[in-house]
């Protein structure tokens, strides 16, 4: 086993872990990043499939994601707008495609007015919800104990309006059925993006992409680390720390041992920058405290298949369509023009969430592809049936993610455990986009969490150095140093 010593071990080379590692290194601390996969980026990943570049994971940037936008600027990465000229398509309960412009679907008058009313109701509740502490919402307990679906049924008598409002949070964001998460969890999702209206507005929430792909953020961050400070293919198996570290303010003499199959790293602090559903892939000695072990069982990732289909031309554009398409009744509940910057071929991207994804995963691959393409054809016509390249991003099959897009709590979990998830355990701190406030579940949130974890860790290390030096009685420039 190779042995290393560092101030901080960062577990996970996603946007969170790499942001934290680069910041700590810039602050003068020695760091090593241990990554299970043979690549950096985690849920950000661009790859060529049959010669076509696809963003298999995260890709879009919205205007409220100011920390991500700042990071893109720092890293010298340029963005371009998602193609959105022309009409959108909506398929209602009758199965007929209808063209429309704007945000509100072309349903009947009552359904439309109910959708608009519910957006207003949700916007007001979101205003009262701090994404950094949703458990402090004035009606937090009540809102965390009712499913989003049940609450919508209480509020609105129009099934199509309910299906559409549910779609924005359930299928499109948390990628879980609306009966499986609470109203409070839905409010957190919307509050993290500024408002519920923002989630409804595809031109806002899916505004821009990065030329060359969003995975360049972690790739460029990784380039900033010193040689040897990023170790790939190193799944962390075990973290051992002293029980004294569990006492409040116990900073002296804490030494942590982080073990992979090939490495043993001794450090003073550890940042576990992996999604919460994977915390239990690591053995902790001693065990994590009782409530931490409990809380981790109440957070789970959703499930979505991101489907990419490339055609010789963006044929929908000639037909006056933007390719923006929605339907709570289709297998593919939302789809967009996802043509890469400067390419002449046209690419569509579509999403299949939660129980619909379960259903298509029951099918043999060819039948699944046919069903998905049929759903795309319902929006764009028969030309959608014959892509030249086709690919399904299947994150649930990825050992080091196990779902998409991110984690959320089950009913009641947010008020019961939400605040606790942010607490350190001795020398360990946990974080990822799944624990973000602004930018929750997004790359912006990952970077915010990475920055926060780096600042908190640097602060603890500085206090530890001060107390160690004070124990040795050295004074420099009037302060204990
Ligand atoms: P992330 O999961 O990326 O990183 C954790 C890392 O830890 C991984 O590299 C993993 O391999 C590693 N790891 C796990 N266990 C380990 C262990 N025991 N030892 C060592 N390493 C370990 N966001 C957005 O802003 N815009 C978008 O358009 C989208 N769209 C989107 C689509 C799809 C299909 C997905 C899957 C996700 C998105 N997202 C998104 C979400 C976004 O990609 C995500 O929130 C962030 O990339 C998460 O970054 P983190 O670093 O927090 O976790």
Automatic annotation (TrEMBL):
GO molecular function: oxidoreductase activity
Pfam family, one: Amino_oxidase
Residues given in the record as FAD binding sites: 16, 35-36, 236
Gene3D superfamilies: FAD/NAD(P)-binding domain
InterPro entries registered for this protein in UniProt: Amino_oxidase (IPR002937), FAD/NAD-bd_sf (IPR036188), Flavin_amine_oxidase (IPR001613), Flavin_MAO (IPR050703)
The Amine oxidase domain, residue ranges: 16-456
Key words of the record: Oxidoreductase
Name of the protein in question: Putrescine oxidase
Cofactor: FAD
Record: residues binding substrate: 351
Family to which the UniProt record says this protein belongs: Belongs to the flavin monoamine oxidase family.
Entries under PANTHER family matching the protein: AMINE OXIDASE, AMINE OXIDASE [FLAVIN-CONTAINING] B
């Amino acid at each position: 086993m190779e042995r290393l010593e560092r101030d901080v071990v960062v577990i996970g080379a996603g946007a969170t872990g790499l942001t934290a590692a680069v910041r700590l290194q810039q602050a003068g601390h020695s760091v090593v990043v241990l990554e299970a996969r043979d690549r950096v980026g985690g849920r950000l990943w661009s790859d060529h499939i049959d010669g076509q570049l696809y963003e298999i994971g995260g890709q879009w940037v919205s205007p409220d994601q100011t920390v991500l936008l700042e990071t893109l600027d720092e890293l010298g990465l340029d963005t371009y707008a998602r193609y959105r000229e022309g009409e959108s398509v909506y398929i209602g309960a009758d199965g007929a495609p209808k063209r429309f412009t704007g945000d509100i679907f072309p349903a009947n008058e009552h359904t439309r007015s109910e959708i608009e009313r519910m957006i207003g109701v949700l916007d007001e509740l979101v205003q009262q919800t701090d994404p950094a502490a949703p458990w402090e919402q004035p009606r937090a307990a009540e809102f965390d104990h009712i499913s989003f679906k049940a609450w919508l049924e209480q509020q609105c008598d129009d099934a199509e309006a309910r299906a559409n409002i549910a779609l924005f949070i359930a299928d499109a964001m948390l990628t879980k059925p609306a009966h499986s998460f609470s109203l409070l969890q839905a409010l957190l999702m919307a509050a993290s993006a500024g408002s519920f209206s923002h989630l409804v507005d595809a031109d806002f929430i899916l505004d821009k992409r990065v030329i060359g792909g969003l995975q360049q953020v972690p790739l460029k961050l990784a380039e900033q680390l010193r040689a040897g400070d990023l170790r790939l293919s190193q799944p962390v198996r075990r973290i051992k720390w002293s029980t004294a570290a569990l006492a409040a303010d116990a900073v002296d003499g804490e030494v942590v041992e982080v073990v992979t199959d090939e490495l043993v790293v001794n450090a003073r602090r550890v940042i576990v920058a992996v999604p919460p559903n994977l915390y239990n892939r690591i053995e902790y000695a001693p065990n994590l405290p009782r409530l931490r072990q409990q809380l981790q069982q109440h957070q789970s990732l959703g499930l979505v298949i991101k489907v990419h289909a490339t055609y010789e031309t963006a044929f929908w554009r000639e037909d006056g369509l933007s390719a923006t398409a929605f339907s709570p009744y289709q297998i593919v509940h939302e789809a967009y023009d996802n043509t890469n910057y400067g390419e002449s071929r046209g690419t569509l991207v579509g999403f299949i969430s939660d129980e619909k994804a379960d259903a298509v995963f029951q099918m043999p691959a060819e039948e699944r592809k046919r069903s998905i393409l049929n759903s795309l054809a319902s929006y764009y016509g028969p030309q959608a049936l014959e892509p030249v390249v086709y690919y399904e991003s299947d994150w649930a099959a990825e050992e080091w993610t196990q779902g998409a897009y991110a984690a959320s709590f089950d009913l009641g979990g947010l008020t019961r455990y939400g605040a606790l998830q942010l607490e350190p355990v001795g020398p360990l701190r946990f974080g990822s986009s799944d624990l973000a406030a602004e930018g929750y579940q997004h790359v912006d949130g990952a970077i915010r969490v990475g920055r926060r974890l780096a600042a908190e860790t640097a602060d603890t290390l500085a206090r530890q150095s001060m107390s160690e030096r004070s124990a040795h009685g050295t004074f420099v420039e009037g302060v204990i140093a």
